[in-house]
Amino acid sequence: MIGLSTYAYFWRMSDRVPAPMSLDDVLRDTAAQGLGLVQICDHAPLAGYSDDQLVALRGLADELGLTIELGTRGTAPAVLRRYLELAVALRAPLVRSMWTAGDDRPDAAETERRLREVVPEYEAAGVTLALETYEQVSSADLVDVVRAVGSDRLGIVLDPANTVARLEHPDDVTARCAPYVANWHVKDFAFSRKDGWVGFALTSTPLGEGLLDLDGIAAALVAADNPHVARDGGVNQVVEHWLPWQDDPATTTRLEAAWTTSTIDHLRRKNHD
Known about the structure:
Blueprint: E1 2-5, H1 23-32, E2 37-41, H2 51-64, E3 67-71, H3 77-90, E4 94-97, H4 108-125, E5 128-132, H5 139-149, E6 154-158, H6 160-163, H7 170-177, E7 181-186, E8 188-193, E9 200-205, H8 214-223, H9 227-232, E10 236-239, H10 249-271
Helix pairs in contact: 1-2, 3-4, 4-5
């Protein structure tokens, strides 16, 4: 299933624009794009939602025919338990998180201990916890911890663009993580010379115009012996962007919206090839 992350609305939700989109606006726009999935990722206010607010959000998602996924950061048990509560209230089948969160950077042994403490609660609730590939932790270390915990409710969110900053090749990351991938953040990327030709910038491009091997990743995920694929019938493709600010709000938000639509169209064509 194709879905949109709140990161696809990064600038349109930010206070740098005159009338930021609300979370309800994001859900409505996702449905208007003809999609059935939205991933509410790193949206800090959500953790403080009251029961009534959660009921209203789930009600809107039901009205629009949307599945909700959630995203937070870190492996602190209190954080993961709060997001499990939110997932149950919102009937979200997946919570994305990260090994590190700010100054909280546990080593592999502590990360494994935390996950062993909390993952059984995710298993009991039928919710998948998936840790994203990032430059702060090698993909090999991430796979080792996921494999050691050994739960089919613990997986990986594949985002090979992130690991480029660690000098990990996207193909290697994909091959290593494929048996454990429960979710795929789809964003194309490219390097460009910075002003004055001093150094490079790594940013997004519209899907199909950068370095992301979309077909190769899709093939690797299909070929992998992956319990998440077997149980869920596939890996959701969640659209994100790394769109740089374009000097003014109108240009930035217009381009962000255009990239989102073109990425959805590209994925739909590929998925029906």
